[in-house]
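step=encode ok
step=design start
structure_in=
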């Protein structure tokens, strides 16, 4: 199984399952430095739709 495909869930679904807000997830990822600009743009777009 392709490891990348395993991670293709929506941020909203993940936030709902973990009881964490999208805004909080973005902040945690930024703090750790484990987020690149393309992922950041996608998360910001999702956040705007929620």
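sequence_out=
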């Amino acid at each position: 199984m392709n490891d990348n495909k395993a991670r293709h869930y929506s941020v909203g679904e993940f936030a709902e399952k973990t009881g964490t807000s999208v805004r909080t997830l973005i902040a945690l990822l930024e703090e750790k430095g484990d987020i690149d600009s393309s992922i950041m743009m996608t998360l910001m777009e999702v956040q705007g739709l929620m």
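step=design ok
step=annotate ok -> Residues 40 and 46 are 10 Å apart (CA to CA).
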